[in-house]
Specification:
Elements lengths: L4 E6 L3 H16 L3 E4 L8 E6 L4 H19 L5 E6 H13 L5 E2 L6 H8 L19 E5 L1 E2 L10 H5 L3 E2 L2 H13 L4 E5 L8 H4 L4 H9 L6 E7 L7 H8 L3 E7 L6 H6 L6 H14 L4 E8 L6 H14 L3 E6 L7 H5 L6 H24 L5 E10 L2 E5 L11 E4 L9 E9 L4 E5 L2
Parallel strand pairs: 1-2, 1-3, 3-4, 4-5, 6-9, 9-10, 10-11, 11-12, 12-13, 16-18
Antiparallel strand pairs: 7-8, 14-15, 14-17, 15-16, 17-18
């Protein structure tokens, strides 16, 4: 009997991707065939895992749902189900506005989706932990869910609720399973990874977790995402410095630098403390690559606030930086407390100016690497190049290394690469074979 096919569409962040991968494994154990983000969905069933974080993400999620509702009306798919953050946040509204969807599920009850799809209770035996959708050599590892920080602009606590750490032994078991599947590189993710363990016994255990993870045979690279600057666990820096397979890379969202903005954003850190933290990170982990996210146009941001942000960016010279313009989100403290008083054109002028500065910084930092040799993992072959990354580059969001495909390289393998040229964000190189 031919298996029914379910095509999963995952929108938003890598944390959503992990949820999709878990549900896909459950579905396949129940007898379905699963595909992911197919260019031309071939499934009788489509499951859309949505994002509801900011306005652009919500719009993309709604448009995707409507696209597949139309495909259902045209007979190209039979059923459409929706899960994830958007439906967690706006479930009743969405059910009323888009009744053509066959079932709506939130972020935490997606296991019930299998019962609906299968039309019977799930009685399958224990399933594989996940059906990996990333290239075979790397995977995302979610260590917690939720956030207790309650920054004024952020809807994540509304969607995900309180911070909940996974048991450490459970995480380490998953790492061993991932290694058994051929994974060599782990992207450690959470809404706020430095808080790991607080809800278990009142102490931060992220350093212990990463150290134990690094000791598992077969783990080649561990990269840390989504740290929070307030009460940063300094013992983590020793682990990053001493463990060779813990990448000298830290994704730490700072959002702003002026005390006025930090206070209004409810970040619980000062300008001086932020400068001191960056100095400590660079001193304790020589050569560390810092990735951050900054925001412009938050309510009350003055020209002076923005000038402070520009000067901070020039001083910090972040190896990786993203930025976005503030958008008011329903139910957040800033939506209740402040008027969205920075005009949209000013927001985007500030964003463009900030990113021009960062582009110049990035071009200079990449150019400094020309002539150096670094270890590179190969992700894929594209056009006339193999595409790889150094330990300072996370998949999909960071610069890449392009190596001519005349060299006999293997996907998922590491090579020593000498850099021969650079662009604003990417490097070119040749392997030392």
């Amino acid at each position: 009997m031919k298996k029914q096919t379910i095509d999963f569409i995952t929108l938003g962040c890598s944390k959503n991707l992990v949820d999709s991968e878990r549900l896909m494994a459950m579905c396949e154990a129940h007898g379905f065939r699963c595909t992911h983000d197919s260019e031309q969905p071939e499934g009788e069933i489509v499951v859309i895992n949505t994002c509801g974080f900011i306005a652009d993400a919500k719009e993309e999620s709604i448009n995707t749902i409507l696209e597949f509702v139309q495909a259902k009306a045209e007979g190209r798919v039979k059923r459409v189900y929706v899960m994830g953050c958007l439906s967690e946040r706006y479930l009743s509204d969405l059910e009323a506005e888009i009744p053509e969807v066959d079932g709506w599920f939130g972020k935490f009850n997606y296991h019930e989706l299998l019962d609906r799809i299968a039309s019977s209770p799930n009685t399958t035996p224990p399933t594989p932990k996940r059906k990996l959708t990333t290239p075979a050599h790397y995977a995302y590892l979610k260590i917690s869910e939720g956030c207790d920080r309650h920054c004024a602009y952020c809807a994540i606590p509304i969607i995900t609720g309180r911070h909940r750490s996974r048991p450490m032994d459970e995480i380490l078991d998953e790492v061993r399973w991932l290694v058994s599947q051929g994974v060599r590189e782990l992207q450690v993710i959470a809404q706020e990874l430095t808080y790991y363990g607080i809800d278990l016994d009142g102490r931060q255990h992220i350093a212990e977790l990463i150290e134990r993870m690094a000791d598992i045979e077969g783990v080649e690279w561990i990269r840390l995402h989504y740290a929070y600057p307030t009460h940063f666990p300094m013992d983590l820096l020793r682990v990053m410095r001493e463990k060779q397979n813990v990448c000298k890379y830290l994704d730490i969202a700072l959002q702003h630098i002026s005390d006025n903005m930090l206070q209004r954003m409810q970040r619980h850190i000062t300008k001086q403390e932020t400068y001191e933290l960056i100095e400590t990170l660079r001193r304790e982990v020589p050569g560390i690559c810092l990735r951050t996210t900054l925001m412009v146009g938050f309510p009350g941001e003055t020209d002076d606030d923005f000038r402070e942000l520009l000067e901070f960016t020039k001083w910090a010279r972040f190896e990786r930086m993203g930025a976005f313009a503030y958008s008011e989100e329903d139910g957040t403290p800033s939506a209740r407390l402040y008027e969205d008083d920075v005009p949209e054109d000013i927001k985007h002028q500030r964003l463009d100016r900030l990113m021009r500065i960062q582009q110049q910084i990035s071009a200079e930092l990449e150019a400094e690497k020309v002539g150096k040799v670094m270890r590179v993992i190969i992700d894929r072959r594209e056009g006339n190049y193999f595409i790889g990354r150094t330990e300072f580059c996370s998949p999909e969001v960071d610069p890449e290394v392009l190596i001519p495909d005349s060299e006999p390289l293997e996907i998922g393998h590491f090579y020593d690469v000498k850099f021969t040229d650079s662009e604003e964000f990417d490097l070119y190189g040749t392997t030392l074979i």
